[in-house]
Amino acid sequence: MQWHSLSEFLAMGGRGGFVWGAYGTMALLMAVEPLLAGWRHRTARRAIAERMTDEAAARAAAGDRS
Amino acid sequence: MTAVTTTSAAPAARPRLTWFTFASPANFYRLAGVLGPVSGVIAAAFALAGLWMGFFVAPTDAVQGEVYRIIFIHVPAAWLSMVLYVAMAFWAAIGWFLNARMAFIFARAIAPTGALFTLLALWTGSLWGRPTWGTWWVWDARLTSELILLFLYLGYMALVAAIDDTRRADKAGALLAIVGVVNVPVIYFSVIWWNTLHQGSSLTMGAQPHMASTMLIAMLLLTLACWAYAFAVVFVRARAIVLEREGDTAWARALVAPTNQG
Questions:
Q1: Does A41 contact B237 at a Cβ distance shorter than 8 Å?
Q2: What's the whole-model pTM score?
């Protein structure tokens, strides 16, 4: 291992801004994208559930009238 | 938003496995629900191993110093940007010629992840180029063709989002994706065909690599991590698209029903 301290590791030979800017952005976006995909999945599930509830309510209302 | 309700009844207790089993949205939905999380765990494991190799085992570069460590994510991001485009165009073509519903869903599910890796390849490359070339950006063949790849992904996503009719949107998007695939070999061979500022391939089939083996292993581990990540997130997005399209089918309603009670 070539690092003797944490600050030396973070400095990356004076290029820390470039190295961590690259790694940080990649880590951030690769954390956000699965969250967005999961959110889209849950939204799709909820939309089906809501439509079923609406249809059940409509059926009940039609039943009351007859 | 009208879906066909007749085709997707839940299979009998013991469905026969054939080549077309997972062309059924219901079966795919269940399979991807298992494969997605598994891919995610594999991605995390490879990422930890690759980052360890990249930062604590791989030596300092004799010429570039520490900033070269950007290669460990830059090359995987660039590879994935091309691989995912080919995968997207492949599924678009399958959808086009075989009229397969799941194929169009795969093409759509891949696009945002491909765009993400293209953006990351450009971004990490820019942060690497500034200290080593002295410029954030240059209009050389490699960088320009990679930028065109980003526009192809974004164009595909905008096109399919702009057309309301799902089938027509799928077909229009597929045409764009298939035509755009000519850009992928242009990116790959750009450093050979033109005199670019961008360096040549890090890895060439059948040739000795130009870098220390620990550097190479770190790069390959992080490539596998990105690959598994792409599988994981594409599976989740494909499941979402399946539900968006199959909301009127019996199987999708049976799936949601238990959480809908009370």
A1: yes
A2: 0.89
